[in-house]
Each structure stands twice: as C-alpha cells, then as structure tokens.
Amino acid sequence: MDLQLYFKTIEHDRGNFKKNSLGEKVDSYTDKAGFPDLEGVDIAFVGVKEDRGAHNNKGCAEAPDVVRHFLFQLFLRDYKISIADLGNIMPGNALNDTYFAVGDVVSELIKRNIVPIVIGGGQDLTYANYTAYEKMEQVVNMVTVDNQFNLGEVDDELNSNSFLAKIILHQPNFLFNYSNIGYQTYFVDKNATELMASLNFDIHRLGEIGNQIEDVEPIVRNADFLSFDVSAIRQSDAPGNLNATPNGFYGEQACQITRYAGMSDKLTSVGFYELNPSIDKNGQTAHLCAQMIWHFIDGFYNRKKEFPITSKKNYLKYRVALEFDKDSHELIFYKSRISDRWWMDVPYPPQKGIKYERHHLVPCSYSDYELAAKEEMPDKWWKTYKKLL
Question: Per residue in 79-91, is it b (16+ CB within 10 Å) or e — as a string?
C-alpha cells in the first residue's frame, strides 16, 4: 500500500530545532524531504484534521499542527529512536471517507510493526482506529480515558458522543474487552453502567482511580489500543476543550497514564483527541498533549518485551487453590523477575478456538494475587473467563 496517498505535507525543518530535540530527530513528510522511508521505523505520528464528528467541539481539527509545535521542542532521554511524522490526513468528501483512510493507515502501520500515534481531531476517530483491527481480523481490547462512555442514543449518528455504541454493535465484532478509565458518575446514566456490567466490561470511576494512579497500569497493559479524550483532564489543566469540566485527571496523572500505555508490549496504537486550539489558553492544553505523547514515547523505549510471556526463567509462578461458585479452581499467577509486574492465567473453556490466544493471560496487580490467597476470586479473572465462554 502506498501510504503517501493519504497524507498532506507539514512544515518542518529539522535545522530549526535544538540539538537532541524531538524536532531534530523526527523524519517528517515535507515538500522538501518527501515522504519518510518507513524501513526500521518504530513509531509514526498521524495527524487527522477532522472534526465533523466532534460533538460540541468544532475546531479540534486544527490540533495536530499545534501539538507538533510544542512536541518537537521537547528533549529526549538517552536512547536511540526511529520516529516518522507522516503528515496530516485531510477531511474526506464525507466523514466515512476519513474513517476509511484512518483505518487503512493504522492497519498498514501495525502490519509493518510500527506504532501509530494518532493526533486528532474528534474522538469519533476511535471508531476508525477500531476498524483497523477489523481489517486484520484481530480480536482486541480497547481502553478509553474519558469522563463518560460515549454510548449516545439509539438513533444517533456516529460521532464523538456515540462511537462506543457503534463499536459494540458493529458486525462482525472483534471487540473482546472494553475498559474505561476516569468516568464521572454524574455524567453517566445508571442504565449505562448496568450495560457495562452485563457485558463484563471494566469501568473505573475517577474517584476510584485518581488517588491510586498506579492501578491504571495493568488496565492499560491489557489494551491493544488506547483512546485519550482531553476532556478527561480537569479544565484548569486542559482548558482547550469545549466540553471541559472542573473535575478530571491532573496533567501529571495524564502523563503517567500515557507512559504506562507506552510501556505495554501488547499495545499497538494510541490516539489523542478533542484538543481545540481555538479556545486554548497560551497553548496550555496543546503543550500538555505534547508532554503526554513524550511520556508515551519514553514508555515505548523502555518496554521490557514481556508479552507474550517469554522465557519461563524470567518469571516466578504462583499457584493458588480456591473454591468459587461451588467449583474448585487453581489460579496461576506469573510475576516478572525483570519488572515485578504480574499476570494471571485464565484457562480456555472447553472447545474454544485460537482467536482468544492473546487474551487469556490477563495483566493484574499484586493485590489480585493477595485477594486469591485470601480465597476470594479476583474480579478480573471472573470477567475474563465469562467473556471466553
């Protein structure tokens, strides 16, 4: 596939940036340099200048270039990088044309073992990101950082307020698990939380997760792709969003979440959405988004290559026997000798096929092991087992 057909050039002169800054290191698609050679590239920036599906946030299409302005001024740590900026995907004649382009590009990059960082644009582009995995017929786990679920109403057209419902109802369906990080109860209808529970999805309130941000790590480590809505960050830290509210994550917490995402060996794409430069204050939100992307890159270049489970000598294996739901179960946990991170093994139910191979080893925390040792079944284990049925 000729990816260049989907992109427009950006203005970027490496000579204008300080030595060792990201701008000096990234190979960008410009009129002068041409389209980057993707051989050996680890990460690719994909700007999407599309906001027709952005609910109550027109103007977010201008975010990609503004984020680049701040991102390229940041300095990297002591590791060798290979990053390309492919430029911007411009709006298609119809919104579905943009979705098709984004899905095609993300799919092709993943096939080439390149992690796309999508800079939107509205969060409805998450749907386009999902279709990339459909094109590869890959069952996936999706995580959104958002103050609500974006289910919308039954008859709503696809937009940033309804994309999750469209993904859930999409056929054929390749969504194995959905996790929300940071929803705020007063924005979510009780019926929506009951629906999430009935689908065995994982939802985590801001109040639950905000005081223990380290609990986000195993949630994100289980994701194939992550979608980050800027409105999940409190307005004082990220004013550049027409849907911003007083409560949300602090800026440093947002950066910690994206660093966890970067460190996940399983995660193959990430998107940042809903930044609206037209109402930003002194570029504060754009600068924060740039730092979030920097933290993702920093996490990526500190990956431990622990998924799927590698040589058994690198792991400690723990067995816990317990009675649950009138049945006997042996729960198996693995602890990495390298990173001290934990996983639990959820066995396949009888007669299940290979398509769930990537989803039966579930990232967890030491507290999940402690729970099992107290003869209590960890919620993660049970929800995963029920989805495998």
Answer: eeebbbbbbbbeb
Number of Cα atoms under 13 Å in the Cβ half of residue 28 = 22
Residue 311: both structure tokens together: 């040589």
How do the residues of the chain divide into helix, strand and coil, expressed in percent and rounded to 5? 40, 20, 40
Q: Is the pTM of this model over 0.85?
A: yes
Distances (CA, A) of 69 to 5, 119, 159, 289, 324: 24, 13, 27, 11, 55
Question: In a 3-state reduction of DSSP, which class is residue 327?
Answer: strand
The domain spans of the chain are: 3-300, 312-388
pLDDT in tens, 57-83: 999 999 999 999 999 999 988 889 999
Question: 3-300 is classed in which CATH architecture?
Answer: 3-Layer(aba) Sandwich (3.40)
- Give me 254's structure tokens: 């947002």
Q: Report the C-alpha gap between 319 and 331 in whole angstroms.
A: 6
Is the CB of residue 97 less than 8 Å from the CB of residue 128? no
User: How far, in Å, are 80, 130, 259, 342, 350 from residue 384 at the CA level?
Assistant: 37, 20, 25, 16, 15
